[in-house]
Structures are given as C-alpha cells and as structure tokens.
User: Fold these one by one.
Assistant:
Number 1:
Amino acid sequence: MGSTERSSVHALQDSRYEQLVQAVVDYAIYMLDPDGYVVSWNAGAQRIKGWRAEEVIGKHFSLFFTDEDCAEGKPAWLLERALSTGVAQDEGWRVRKDGTRFWALAALDVIRAPDGEVIGLAKVTRDITDRREAAQQLDAMRAQLFQAQKLEALGQLTGGMAHDFNNLLTIIIGSARLALNSHDPQRVRRLLEHVLDAGERGTQMTQQLLSFARQKALKFGRIQLPTLIDSIRLLIGQALPRAVELQIRFDESLQDVEVDGGQLQMVLLNLIFNARDAVGEVGVICLQASNCRLDGEIDDLHGDFVRLEVSDNGHGIDAKVLPRIFEPFFTTKAFGKGTGLGLSQVYGFARQSNGAVRVSSTVGQGTCMTLYLPAFAPAPDSTH
Ligand SMILES: Nc1ncnc2c1ncn2[C@@H]1O[C@H](COP(=O)(O)OP(=O)(O)OP(=O)(O)O)[C@@H](O)[C@H]1O
Ligand SMILES: [Mg+2]
C-alpha cells in the first residue's frame, strides 16, 4: 500500500469517526484545547446544551458551569486535574444556553499526540437529570416506607402489649373478684393460683421485653451446657407431644460458656417451643452443641465460641416472614397462641451476651436456629 493510499484510508476513517461523533445525540461530545477553549461540538452537545457550534467554538468551557461553580474555580480545577492525571470526572449542575440547569455526568480525557504532546481534551457530558430525580424519588419513597414500617412495628408493639396485659389483668381482676365473693376455701385457693399464675406471666413478659430493649443487666457466669439442659429436660419433656422426638448431641470436649444461665434456659425453651409448634404432633427436634472458632465471619465476632443449634423438621419459615421473626410481637400464630416475644428475647440475649443468632429455614423441610455463645475464658492466672 502506497503512502497516499494509507493517508486516504486514514482520512476515510477520520471522516467516519467524525460522522459517528456527530451522529451521537445522547451525549455531548466535544473537544477543548489545553487551555479549555471549545474546538469542536457535536449534535448531542447542541441538543443537551442548546448552543450551536458556531456560537460556542472558541469560547471557554466555563461557560457551561453555574456561577457558583465558576466562583469556586471548578472549571480550572477540573482542567488541571485532567491535565495532570490524564482524566477528570465530575457530576453536578450545568447551565444551558437558555439559563436552565441540568444535572450532568461529565468526563474529561486528555488526548496526546504520538510524541506525548497534549493536543487537547475530549469532553463527554451526559444529561442525567431524569436519572437523578428518579433516584431521589426512590430514596424518598424508601425513607417513607421505612418510617411506615417503624410505625407499624411500634403500633404492633403497643397494641400487642396492651392486648396481652389486658388479658392478664382480666384474669387477675376476675379471679380476685370471684375470690372475694366466695366462701369455699378450696375455690379461693384455686382462684388465687390463677392470680399468681397471670401475675407471673406478666412478669415474664416484661422480662422478655426488657431484655430485648437491653435494659436488663445479665448475670454472667460459667455455664456447663449439658448440666443446664438437664435442668430443663423435664419441662421440655412435658411440653412435647409424645411422638415428637428430642435428640441431644454434644461435642465430646465441649467448652463451658459465659452467659446468664437463667436467660439461656428461657432462650432454649423459646427455641424448643417454636420448634414444637412447627413440627406439630410428629417430628424431630435436635439440640446440638459444638465448639467453634470465629474469625469475623459471624457479626464480626472473633475467638472461641460454642455453636448451639436447635433444629426441627417442621413447616419452615416463609421467605416473606423470615426478615421479621426477631421483631417483638411479630407472630404468625393464632390469636392467643403466641405473643411474638420469644425470638425477640433470643435476639436480645444473643446480642447482650456478645454472641449472635442465625436462622436458616426451608419451607416444608424445617428450621435451624443457631446461637453462638462465647466460650468461658479462665481469668489469667494472677498467682505468679
Ligand atoms: N422453628 C420454627 N419453625 C417455623 N417457624 C418459626 C420457628 N421459630 C419461629 N418461627 C416463626 O417466627 C415467629 C416468631 O417467633 P416468636 O418465638 O418470636 O413468637 P411466637 O412463637 O409466635 O410467640 P411466643 O414465642 O411469644 O409465644 C413465629 O410466629 C413463627 O412464625
Ligand atoms: Mg415462640
């Protein structure tokens, strides 16, 4: 190929390239000289900014910036950055010929000759006003939704609490009234037992609420899990239907944990009762404990932990419900069957114990709730 042929091929490529740039209407593509004066102007630039080529060529590109940006020296600053690093990007308001503003996404790239000399800068600007407005609307909607959800949770909280306490008070007042009017000592005794029972349930409810709100100080101690579980075994046995099997498995050299033992008993009962409600009359509930080391993979926890799992082969948890199960008063159980406080207590306990709780569930197959509890670390020997 002769040199005239080659240059005509280049000329053809150049003109095609020019046509291409000219045809683009969604982007303002133009060139600046190294001092920031406009050298070329495409159809997109005219469409977006309103000026025709003959009106802007030779003008300084600060023409497109707002007065505020010019006062702050933004055009010069962008130019300087592009020239020193090869590229500068910016997002912000720009001004059209008619004075209206649009939100621009702009890139400024240095163009060099083969010998390295700076020939000019390529400026590509896009009008993303619509996109920005859509994003802002979405943010506003999200904020509103979040607020609404918070209010709903709060409404549920107060509504649920009022309702449950009301039930208990009805029992207490009714029984006390009956007892006052009764002359049968045995009946009076039974009624007083109702009063006591309702009162204790109320206390339990406030305890659970307080530990969710993290206002209750836990009594940390060294707890042996097998012993603790033994102490509630009888209670669990009474609460499970006959055809529900409870399997218990411990690691051989299971470490002790450092938690509030009384609270942990409540937590285990809550988890096991949830499992019982999920399996129905026939099923398997498995309680498993093993040592584990965490390196930040769970809630950024580090160190020695005991992983305590309560799993069941019950109906599982619907994906729509799953994000809400730890909320206080969230329940899917029938009226009077659940208060929705069980898992909020579990959650509060796990956090306060410097541990964590995780759930995994498959609808139709079952659920596994996993607690991570800090292993007991003996205090450093101070006798030396
Ligand atoms: N093992 C499980 N299997 C299936 N669903 C579960 C399980 N554990 C919890 N859930 C779901 O999470 C919801 C919230 O549980 P949570 O223990 O907080 O309240 P509850 O059991 O409904 O009432 P409460 O424990 O206060 O009597 C339950 O209503 C249920 O829908
Ligand atoms: Mg429960």
Number 2:
Amino acid sequence: MGLPAGLLDAGYTRLLRPVLFRACGGDPEAIHELMIRVLAGFGSAGPAAALTGLVAGSRGRRTTVAGIDFGSRVGLAAGLDKDATAVLAWRGLGFGFAELGTVTARAQPGNPRPRMFRLRDSKAVINRMGFNNPGAEAVAATLAARNVFRGNGVAGIPIGISIGKTKLVELADAVSDYLSSYRLLAPHADYVAVNVSSPNTPGLRSLQDGGALADLLGALVSEAATMAAESHPSVPERGPGRCGPMPIFVKVAPDLTWAQLDEVLATCADHGAAGLIATNTTLARDGLAASDQTRAAEAGGLSGAPLTRRAREVVGYVCEHTDLPVMGVGGVITAADAMALFDAGASLVQLYTGFIYGGPGLPAAVNALDVERQGS
Ligand SMILES: Cc1cc2nc3c(=O)[nH]c(=O)nc-3n(C[C@H](O)[C@H](O)[C@H](O)COP(=O)(O)O)c2cc1C
C-alpha cells in the first residue's frame, strides 16, 4: 500500500522541493540530471524498489487505448527521461505509462546552456533544450540492457518512445531520419510518438503541414506494418511482430490554428495514426506572474500552469473533431486539471512541469481522483 497522495504532496513541496530548487546553484538542468541519475539506479529489486513502493500503492483507473492495456490513465510526458536511463523508475513514482525521449537518429548536444528556466510564481518552465540526446542506437542499447522490449512488461507500465528530427538533417530528408530512429527503437516501445511540434528545432513544426505530415506518417505506418509482418531478427522472441503493428501517435503544438489542426486531424485519420498527443509547449507568453516577466523573454517553449487553459481548449477541439484517441498534456498542475482533460475527451493524460512543482504526489492524486470519480 502506498502513501496517501496528500502526504506525498506535503513531503515533496515542503521538504524536498525547497532543497531541490536551491541545489546545484539553482540550475534547473543540473538538478534534473542529478535526479535522473538517482532514478536510473532504481530498478525492480533492492532498497530502491522499497522506496518507490511508497508511491507504487497508488494505482489508477485501468483502460485500453490503441490496443495497449494501461493500468492507470496518467503518464510521464516526453522530455523528462530523454535518454531512457530511468525507465524502470516511473511506475514506482505513480505513473501508468511513460513516454521516453525525444530521441533523434544521431546523437546531438542540443542548444547551449542555460536552456531550461523555472518561472516559479507562474508554476511554469521555459525550455529550449533542442533535443539533446545520445541518439537512437544508444537509447536502444540502454533499453536492451534493462531488458525493456515491446509488450514484455519489464518496466511495469507501457512505454512510449518519442522520436524527432536530427537538427543537422535537412527537412527534405526528415522521413529517412525518423525512419532510422523508428527501426532502432520500435522493438523497445509499446507505442511511438512522432514529435513534429517542438519549437526548439528550426523548421520542425512545418512537418505538421498536411503534405509533409502525410509523407512522414505514411512512411512510419508502412514501416510498422512491414516490421509487424516479418519477425525482427535482432529480437526474435520479443520483436514488434509479436503484438501487431506499432501504434503511432502524433504530437501537436498548442499554437496551431483550428484550420491547421483540421488538416493535421485529416492527415492522421487518412494515414493510419493510432492517436494524437495534445499538446507540446507553447510559444505564447500569456498568463505569467508579474515577477516572471523578465524570464518570459527567454526563447523557447512555455509549459505548466500558463498552458492549462489552451491545452484543454485544444484537447477539446481535437476530441470533437476526430474519432482517434487523444492523450491530453499541458498544464496539469492539480488532479482537477487532469480531470478537466478527461472531461474534454482525453483517453489518457501526461504531465511534466506539474511533476517538477508537485512531485510524485501529483500522479498519485490524479490516480486517486480518477478512481474515485469512476466509482461515483
Ligand atoms: C524541459 C522540457 C523538455 C521537454 N522536452 C520534450 C521532448 O523532448 N519531446 C516532447 O515531445 N516534449 C517535450 N517537452 C514537452 C512536454 O512533453 C509537454 O508536452 C509540455 O511540457 C506540456 O506539458 P506540461 O505543462 O505538463 O509540462 C518538454 C518540456 C519541458 C519542460
């Protein structure tokens, strides 16, 4: 049995968060890296497992989306575990699934530091990380070393992997770049997310345009069918063929117009997407506290509380205009924010910035409220 969400929340926000926010000279990325290194040591055995068991008692509402069985409806959003090293920790922290990455075909350093900024009074973050990651081959090796393969349940929860474009690759060559990542990572994922909505890789968001998205999605869906049809030689027993074609989700920006979203939805429906993830960070700077106005000038994508309303609006629009399942993400700071995304039609929710400000009490609270509402 895990600790109640309220106790976890108080323990994190009153005790741990003040220490974390001051640690490493207050550099958010440095403390992030340190926490990921700690979590990477968490496995399914030993004292770390007992620690994570404090939260693991928090189980949520079961659902099936795109043929995947989810034990709870709240997941970790992409970007927090970019290298996939902490893959075995997320279940223990109360998440029902985790989206790793974004991973690119080639290793790349991302943008110069500093590139991640806390806007504390606004419960927000601005980041311009730029897909820093060790590359698809290294991430596949990390997952293989932990025996995480599609459908084998070793992580205890479904695993999504987000793929993006290598910065140095021309937009015209994006399809083959995404395909390289896809082939390497699909054996380790229960679903793949196509990230065409990060604001921090020049030109990336243009891949949301109808023709470009059709080419990209068409190629990935056809590769998924091919890989499902043939037994994958590198993982004979556990390859993607075992569970049918890989579900492919498309992650969209909150800054699209309704007309642009209509085009994305039509392309997703016509080219075999399994669903949508809405939304990525925003380029807008609305809803910030006065004390955060200086930081607001930093370039990059804004996440957290200022995104809550827009993400809900976009999720509502998407759900009204497609039959595909939707993962809602953006500005989930309280359990009620997650319920609002469910009420807007989302089948699952994800969070990132809320976890920085709320810690493991937040997914636990989402799970508790989700179960409570199911019963009422
Ligand atoms: C520091 C940081 C890095 C991120 N990196 C990625 C990424 O690599 N891929 C991606 O799809 N989204 C990335 N995101 C966006 C989140 O997955 C999420 O869509 C967005 O932050 C809105 O959710 P939130 O308000 O719960 O944070 C990142 C967000 C932050 C704050």
Number 3:
Amino acid sequence: MLETDVLVVGGGPAGATTAKYLSLAGVKNILVQRNFNFKKPCGGGIRLDAFDTFEIDKTLIEKEVHELNLVHKRQKISIDISQTPIAIVDRVKFDTALREHAKNAGTDVYEAAFVSLEIFESYVISTIKKDDVYIKIKSNSVVAADGVNSKLRKQVNNDTVSATMTHYCDITSQNYRSCTFHVGEQVAQKNYAWAFPHAKGSNIGVVAEHKCLEVLKKDLSLQESTKDLGYKIPNYDTMLFYKKRVFFVGDSASQVLPFTYEGIYYAMGAAKILADVLINKELPSIYEKRWKEKYAKKFDTLLKLQKLFLYNDFTIRIMMRLYQNPSIQKQMVLLWLGDRELTINGAFLLKVIKKILQRRK
Ligand SMILES: Cc1cc2nc3c(=O)[nH]c(=O)nc-3n(C[C@H](O)[C@H](O)[C@H](O)COP(=O)(O)OP(=O)(O)OC[C@H]3O[C@@H](n4cnc5c(N)ncnc54)[C@H](O)[C@@H]3O)c2cc1C
C-alpha cells in the first residue's frame, strides 16, 4: 500500500498541471497516467499567453497562427489575431513535458491505469494496475483528471460526461498557415468544422456527424485519402467539481469552452485553481466558487452566442454580416482569446439588430 496526500488520475493538461502545482508547494502527490505515449485526439491549439501563465517551455510550440478565417458557403472573412496568436503543439510532446515538469517538482509519476476506488470517511483507497500488478494507494483526496471518458466520474457520480462526437483526420497534402472555421448547417450543423495547421501537416474535422466531414473535404477540394477518426468532446452542461473526496478537473468536469471547444487552456486554468485549494486546505466548495468567479461568465456568454448564431444558416448569415465589421471582429477576438467580458441580454440583441440595419442602408 502506497500513501500520499493526493492521488491524481490522468496525466493530460489537467492532471499534470494539478500535480506540478501541488509539488511546487510541497504537497505529496502521485500521478498515474495510463499510457505515456497516448496521443490525445486534439488540434493542439492553445492561446499563446498560456505558456507564460502556466510556466511552460515555449520550445514546445510547433507553429504560431496569426490569422483566423470564417467561412460560410462562398463567403470568407479573415481576422487578424496577431495581438493574441494561437500556438500549435504536438500533444504527445506537450503532455510528456507537462508530466516531466510535475516529476521535476517532486510528483511520483507512474505509468499505470486507475482501476477502482473505495471512499471512507477520512481517506480514499484506490487501486491502480501497473504491468499486470495491482497496487493500492491510500490518499486524503483524489483528483479525477481522466478525460471525457472518465472512469472516476462513472464510479463516483454514476454518470458520464455529456459530450458531442467529433470526426477528424490528419492531412499531409496541405500546410495551412491560418485556422479556418467553416460554419453552416451542411458542413457543421449547429457547431463548426475546422481546417487548422497541425504539428505535422494539417488537421481537419467537424464537431458534428461524420457526413459533415465528407462535405468539408469536398468544400476544401481535398483529393488525398484520409484515415477518419472520432472522439468525444465535452459539452458545458454537466459540470461536476467535487463529490466525496474526489475533485474533477478538465474534460472529466466538462470544462471545455462552448462555441470554440477550447479545452487545454481551461483544463490548466482549473487545475491551478484546484491546486491552490488543496495546498491551502480550503473547503472543497471553494474550488467551484473560484472557478465560477473566473470563468463562468465567459463560458455562459460563449454558450449563448453559439446557440444564437449557429442556430441555422439564417442566423449564421447574420453572424457573418456582423463579422465584416472590424470593431466587432476585434471585440470577439478579445472575448475569445483575451479577457474582454460581454453580457448577452436584450440590449445586446438590440445592438446586433441595429448593426445589421445600419449595414443594409
Ligand atoms: C478532435 C478534438 C480536437 C480538439 N482540439 C483542441 C484544440 O485545438 N485546442 C484545445 O484547447 N482543445 C482541443 N480539444 C479539447 C482538448 O483536447 C481537451 O479539452 C483537453 O485535452 C482536456 O485535458 P484533460 O487533461 O482534462 O484530458 P485529457 O487530455 O483527455 O487527458 C486525460 C488523460 O487521462 C488518461 N487516462 C484516462 N483514463 C485513465 C485511467 N483509467 N488511468 C490512468 N490514466 C487515464 C488519458 O490517457 C489522458 O492522458 C480537442 C478535442 C478533440 C476531441
């Protein structure tokens, strides 16, 4: 039986970041990651300021993106994001480096799979499986950072993370330099389709049914044969922060920004908040309170904008019309990649209608 203060399950951005900050503050912790070579299906796009905020080595950046495109049918709008660029990382290298940071700070990192747990009044006994050997770990608390298919969530809360299936593939014949979002009912239903630079080559995909990926390939005039894959991405509607000595963080907690489906930055952001709560031995409810103070407004706003503008082709046309306005472009970029706040209410909707009418004149 091993003993520690905190057992962290899952060594992706959420788990590795929690473990690193716990170790830096001297809190004993063990991190278990099922497979050190796991390649998280992911575009690997992260806002560049994340590297300073979470003290990550910038040599992990494979590419930098300074322009976004928004495409609807034949219409294309280009948006300059050079003030707030996006970095593209290779997820195997990135996650490995995050776990290395945690290890160097003092975390015991095991390549092992979490199997089950028993929760007692003042401690938790977890079972992990390493090289066919079952090991018990006694800890004061457990951090569930085991992603969208969280086993801990099933065992502790008896539910699964509400999620949408994505369909995507890597492509080698194109080397995109900007991130292009394709919107429209045919190509992306009520979400978006993407064509992004990837660590190697490019990556395209849809947050929608597989048939939309075929539409996207046609729109992109793609000739190469591809290996299409699918993976789930959490919806921000079944958040879970804490239950019975287990804290949830990242995808297992549904902490993925609506509309853009950006999860890496927010997994690390929530991990930092959680680590502080554990370090200072604060009440578990403080984790949820601080997360909500920092992120709830942004998440709620993006969800409302997604529902409002990606509803159907008509509302998408309105969004495209608005995006032609440079000041709206700037505000939306700041809302997404910066710290601008926006309130969606009757006054906002009135402003939208006014802008549309002004453009019509
Ligand atoms: C197709 C696609 C594209 C995406 N593109 C982007 C993007 O460009 N930018 C962005 O910000 N977000 C993107 N996301 C979302 C992003 O990948 C996730 O939100 C982010 O990885 C969440 O981090 P996490 O640490 O919570 O979970 P994960 O990264 O999923 O990490 C969980 C870890 O737990 C491990 N694990 C699972 N079960 C066990 C177990 N039983 N025992 C031990 N270990 C276990 C897994 O192996 C994994 O390493 C994308 C998602 C998808 C599906």
